[in-house]
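Entry — protein

Goal — fold tokens:
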Amino acid sequence: MKSIDSITRRRALGLGLALGVAGCAPKATKELERMTAIGRPSMFDWKLHAPEEVGMSRAGLENVRAAIRKYVDKNEITGAVAAIARHNKLVWYEAQGVRDVTTGEPMRKDDLFRMMSSTKVVTAVAVLQMMDEGKLALDDKVNRFIPTFKDTKVAVTPPNAKEASQVQLVPANRDITIKDLLTHTSGLSSSGEASLVNKIERRPDDTLADYIPRLGSAALDFQPGSKFRYSPLDGFDVLLRIVEIASGMPADAFLRERLFEPLEMRDTYFHVPPEKQERILTLYARKEGAWSAQPSLLGLGPKYICGAGGLFSTVRDFMQFEAMLLNRGSLNGHRILKDQTVALMSSNQVGSMFAEWFPAMTAGHGFGLSVRIVEDSAKGSGRSVGAFGWGGAYGTESWADPELDVAAALFIQQPVTAVQHDFQRALRDAIVDRAAV
């Protein structure tokens, strides 16, 4: 039998060649070195390990706690659940604050969070699973699967236009592709120029199969591939419908069978079953000096599966997911994605377009297939170059940092980005051995 080390070296060499062919040779070399050096199976469990085992300090982890506590004490967040793993060993898993501001009931580790756009990375993995099986390609036109996305138009709108009659529709230079949707470069429903003429709405009883074909008549906000502009909902809902068509399975059944069960994501749902609904956190916002319960931004019908923002989940489940990505597609004996597919997912696909989109937030970053990627560690808020992940509108954030061999998640239900940044900096400062192994 071949040793784990020799198998790892062979897989790393294959990954290096794949990335080199894709034009990512420097990253390939670094990734090859990391995988060869690690030489360990991708096993992860929920035993809490001493921080010293993985080159972290207890005092540093106390600062992680304090970084979150500060925002609870200032009444900027009601509470949080966070977890950190390094070298596939869990070193931090804690709930802070309250889940009910009226009773003071403490936040629980198994509380269910509205994931919002954190859902998008899950949808992207489902798309990439279909790619690994040869059922689709990133450059496939969307109309290969959904014929209504043919002969698409682009909206051209004069500055300050307020009427649909002022919008000129011109032919798209090319059809939109799966990669365009994964990288938010399609121009579909990005709240831009076409919003004046696009009046396509979801109906209460719609499914993906009902709604997505109607989007084929929507005008695009810009020529495909020419800009990065975030598509909050429709882009990734189209992708999840493509997964349904390519796999021949309903989206929720596909994800349950192919992703959630293999990764033991036992509490991840689009529609939470009745026996678990009491675990769903109330949404609170601060109004006139007090916390007030708020409705969700995302109103979905009972049949609709929203690949862009519809999941509920826990920190535990998303740590399983991030550990799989950190281990290049494999966890606890289950291969979810090919090594080279995760490498492609976590490589910048849009050049400088993401960094230039909203520089106050995106400078120093690239964008891969559904994920933000750190390219300048000074802009990474504690993450290393190559770290990748995404978050949700209410404050769920999870990521993998290959350079530090860290997977982490911090879930809140208020959109307070400062706590995320402080958490990430405290995490990095808690690492006293910066080596990747």
The first strand starts at residue 79 and ends at 86. Confidence is low (pLDDT under 50) at residues 1-29, 31-39.
